Amino acid sequence: MSMSPIDYLLTRRSVKFVRAPGPSAEHLDLILRAAMTAPDHGRLQPWRFALIRGEAIGRLADLAIEASKVAGKPMPPEKEANTRRWLAEVPLLIALACRLDHSNTKIPEDERMLATGAAVTQMLDAAHMLGYGAYWSTGLGTYVDQVNEALGFDGLDYRYMGYLAIGTPIEAGEAPQRPDYRQFVTEWTGN
């Protein structure tokens, strides 16, 4: 029996520890198409993605760890080892960036970042609906210019936003207990 769409949304959770198989070509196409449905003021489509698979994931780990050291942001040895162990299992990383169109001064950068975040959320939801685990990480050199540039996201034209790791969950798990939304909502009446 299949879940309803709202149940998929309510049961989505971040799943860091994934392994092969990753999304098939057909499923990856659906995940990326889902990103295109994000709300986007001005239809700027600011999101940009770079697919990283197979041996390229290990090369990215090497690059990011070394670039972080050069930038004065080295990982502690235990974190480096844990990161390498984690990435050794991940079948697909998607690098995430927001393109800044400096010729468009009408729509602020914040709105472009929000649109890109919405596109990534659509990808997380689509991956979950297709049975994959996914995790948005801002580790692995996200804030190191050399890593961003190596992925094709020069800091003058892009805001780099991290990675999605997508694959088959290693452990089955339930969605975490969510807070009561009423803790975060007020009603404004204009009085």
From TrEMBL:
Residues 11-167 form the Nitroreductase domain. Belongs to the nitroreductase family. Its cofactor is FMN. The keyword Transport does not apply. Its EC number is 1.-.-.-. This is Putative NAD(P)H nitroreductase. Signal peptide: none annotated. Keywords: Flavoprotein, FMN, NAD, NADP, Oxidoreductase. CDD domains: YdjA-like (cd02135). Pfam families: Nitroreductase (PF00881).
